[in-house]
Amino acid sequence: MGKVGAVIVAAGKGSRMRSAESKQYLQLGDKPILVHTLQLFQNITEVDEIVLVVPAADVQRCKDLVNIYSITKVSRVQAGGVERQDSVRLGLAALQEDTEWVLVHDGVRPFTAVEHIIGCLNQAKEAGAAVLAVPVKDTIKVVDQSKCIQSTPDRRSLWAIQTPQAFRLALLQKAQELAIQDGFIGTDDASLVERTGTNVLVVEGDYYNIKITTPEDLPWAEWILKHVRGERNS
Ligand SMILES: Nc1ccn([C@@H]2O[C@H](COP(=O)(O)OP(=O)(O)OP(=O)(O)O)[C@@H](O)[C@H]2O)c(=O)n1
Ligand SMILES: C[C@](O)(CO)[C@H](O)COP(=O)(O)O
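^ 2-C-methyl-D-erythritol 4-phosphate cytidylyltransferase, sequence as received from the core. Prediction below:
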């Protein structure tokens, strides 16, 4: 049933990390964060091909990483765009023509459980579109610009959305085209597909699937690597 491509987006600036080195290359254990993520997808049998999207200036650097760590499923190291959404679009265009399903994943989420990636892909194969997510643990408020609380949404309907996000490739490409037409910029891929009226299903993941974003995520990431990730995913 159709080829599966993974688009790993790592073309951001990592400005919230405030580090001299871009966060995707920061060392986690014995290798860069991005390499952990690439190895995760390299080792998933269901994934036929990986397109890696990186800053234009880093294409050769990332080709070297791919070679050094023998990430043989990477078919293309693609220069990214201004917004995450642009990087995803460029990554989708670089997939082989016979690709039917795509997993879009953040290069800085190295700890996704393999069973959750496969669960998300299988759900997308049934429904067309599926994303990993976890129920929020906090009470979330809607707050206006003067820091006044406007409302308290029912927590039972709130989920924190993660990646991978899995789609029939043609569906995500159509959603991308519509977003360009409408000048819509979303912070994730599902938000583009939702606008087409297509249902996107949520697959429950776990709280270890963090996106490494700010400096306080780094010691937490080292802890997950040492105490959780090794035994769950390798
Ligand atoms: N133009 C962009 C922006 C983001 N990303 C990627 O999307 C993922 C999630 O984005 P985020 O964590 O927000 O990364 P950055 O945009 O790099 O971080 P910041 O917003 O702090 O600058 C990251 O792997 C990032 O490299 C991308 O490929 N292209
Ligand atoms: C796609 C994503 O990782 C889902 O949680 C997230 O939306 C990326 O957003 P960011 O604003 O780039 O952190």
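The domain at 3-233 is CATH 3.90.550.10 (Spore Coat Polysaccharide Biosynthesis Protein SpsA; Chain A).
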